[in-house]
From TrEMBL:
Keyword Oxidoreductase: yes
Taxonomic placement: Bacteria, Bacillati, Actinomycetota, Actinomycetes, Pseudonocardiales
GO MF annotation terms: nucleotide binding; oxidoreductase activity
Keyword Oxidoreductase part of the UniProt annotation: yes
Domain Gfo/Idh/MocA-like oxidoreductase N-terminal: 4-117
Organism: Pseudonocardia ammonioxydans
UniProt-listed Pfam families: GFO_IDH_MocA, GFO_IDH_MocA_C3
Residue stretches making up the GFO/IDH/MocA-like oxidoreductase domain: 132-261
Source domain of life: Bacteria
Keywords recorded for this protein, A-Z: Oxidoreductase
Descriptive protein name: Predicted dehydrogenase
TM region(s), chain numbering: none
Length: 337
């Protein structure tokens, strides 16, 4: 099998998950990291040298037309995604884009139309073994008829010095990130992937912490709560925040006519392993089904492995990214979707 040749745009967040995963897959001959791009010559050269990448490009435009690149991995703030993905698609590349796909629904619609099967979104939570097993059991009838799904995701992310120093730009709504549009979109994607299309989406989103650590002005949404109905009529509720100082992490509980499933993680499901427990009527008690396992890059590595192998059935596409954007927009606007 020919290795998938990858070019990465942006290196800040990529150094935590994307680049370590690509190194692992490169050692197996599955991918080849051929280029990096940043906005400045110095940072581009330094990052390429640090990671042993042969070419450093200044600006995404150069990387998108690099004939050695098969797939462009866009790892930048959401407000930049539209132009970058548009450029990569116009150059005939496959594209992997961080979530959210785009800053607006209209921009997401444009990209989904342009992609023609070549666009994927890094909502890697699908590749956590505990969540994949939850989906399998739901579809196999473990809980019977699904009646209620409750999700809470409370994280202390931007109450910490490290997060504010590394990703303080998330405080500004103009950059396109928020608790609803980042962690919340992973949850929306998981719900759609597991239970089918969502309808009757309605909710509330707000900014409760207007200054991170008392000094960084913030106007992006940090807290959101919303409800929806699944394709088969079950009621879902989702409540998220990324400024909860003592946030207990992620919890999804699926209640059905014949059982219950409970998935939990200590943090955002894109990076923290998920443990799954469950019980059926008559079992007497909930028991462990899948232990938490893996590191911060494990889920992304599994997604990238699937892309390299051409096994993309469960890799979120631009269409999935657009559907998640529509959920976020409905919550923010107070409309229904």
């Amino acid at each position: 099998m020919t290795a998938l040749r990858i070019g990465v745009v942006g290196v800040n967040y990529a150094e935590v998950t994307h680049l370590p995963a690509y190194r692992t897959l490169a050692a197996e001959g599955l991918v080849e990291l051929v280029a990096l791009a940043t906005a400045h010559p110095g940072t581009a050269r330094e990052a390429a040298a640090r990671h042993g990448v042969p070419r450093a490009h200044v600006g995404y435009e150069e990387l998108c037309v690099d004939p050695e690149v098969d797939l462009v991995d866009i790892v930048t703030r959401p407000s930049l995604h539209l132009d970058m993905a548009r450029s990569a698609l116009a150059a005939g590349k496959r594209v992997l884009c961080e979530a959210p796909l785009a800053p607006t629904v209209a921009a997401g619609e444009e990209l989904a139309t342009l992609a023609c099967g070549r666009g994927f979104v890094d909502m890697q939570s699908r590749f956590q073994p505990g969540l994949a097993e939850l989906r399998r059991r739901v579809r196999d009838g473990y809980v019977g008829r699904v009646d209620n799904v409750a999700v809470t995701a409370f994280y202390p992310t931007f109450t910490t010095e490290a997060a504010v120093a590394g990703s303080g730009w998330c405080a500004e709504a103009a950059h396109g990130a928020s608790s609803l549009r980042v962690h919340g979109l992973h949850t929306a994607d998981l719900l759609r992937w597991t239970f089918g299309e969502l309808s009757d989406v309605r909710g509330s989103a707000t900014t409760r912490q207007p200054a991170w650590l008392g000094r960084v002005p913030a106007d992006s949404v940090d807290s959101a709560a919303w409800t929806a109905r699944t394709a088969e009529g079950a009621v879902c509720s989702v409540h998220t925040s990324w400024v909860a100082p003592l946030g207990a992490g992620f919890r999804m509980v699926v209640h059905g006519s014949e059982g219950v499933l409970r998935a939990e993680a200590d943090g955002h499901t894109g990076h923290f392993p998920v443990r799954l427990a469950g019980a059926r009527s008559g079992d007497g008690a909930v028991r462990d089904l899948v232990p938490a396992s893996g590191g911060p890059a494990s889920a992304f590595e599994a997604l990238a492995r699937a892309l390299a192998a051409g096994d993309t059935a469960h890799v979120p596409t631009f269409d999935d990214g657009l559907a998640a954007l529509r959920v976020a927009s409905a919550v923010e606007d107070g409309d229904t979707a």
